[in-house]
Amino acid sequence: MGCMVDFPNNLAPTYECASELASLGPVAALLTLIIGIPIIKIILRYLKRAFEKYDYIDQGLENFLFRIVSVALWVLVILTAANELGINVMGIVAALGIVGLAVAFASKDTMENIIAGIFIIIDRPFREGDRILLPKKIGGLYSSWGDVQEIGLRTTTVRSTDGVMLTIPNKLLTRDAVANFSHRRDMQLRVRIRLGLTPTWDNVTKAEIIVKDIAKNHPDICQEKPKPPEAVLRDFGDQDVIMEIRYYVENPKQMRPSKSFFVTEILRRFGEEKVTLAFPVRINMNSDVKLSDLGF
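The structure assignment produced for this chain is given below.
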């Protein structure tokens, strides 16, 4: 005779009685939740410690794996509890699969963004904190560059250099090539400035000396590695000699300020030392202008 025949008047505190009580559906389901929830918390705690120990794992990948493991554990515990209550778990799983398939077809854009987010997390073309080139549709409105703030499954949050916080669907970031200005290896970035100089030997020589001197006096410009600053004469234009100034900086946030400094100094020094930039000239033959005044 079982101990549950005269429950609760004749409930004996024996192992057999406890086993019989635990085998009851509601009690087993409750025990599953009581034991399962702390186990989930312990597993997630140790998983987070493991991620902190192996810090070479990307933060976005850590968040993705943590969410997947967390959802899987909760689903496992809940389905186990439901099975103890006599609920057809396989039927629930099959129904959820059909519903998921229907939702996937109904929300095609969402699924595309989620798949793109998974590829971003796995391939890691950029990470949180990196400066990237924004997609053309967005970059034309809110600056061309932005710093990645958070990588999610469906969207990526980027703060543009204008200070605007952008939530970008992931599929836009995987559709074209991704330009990352904050890559982890050899982070130095080259800046180029092109000038059209009046094509005379003295003018070009003086311009080259001034440009090299300007490059030596800016703390953000790399002087040795990967290459020292240089001024290259690329070609003859229609009315000028094209000079290209090339130098490297240590990180993307130094590109624009250093370029602004360079342009300002070029205008100031060229004006002081009478170095001339070429410009289109239109001559009206009916005017009284002497060609010698224009350098002809």
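Interim note for the steering committee: The chain has a mean pLDDT of 77. The first strand starts at residue 131 and ends at 133.
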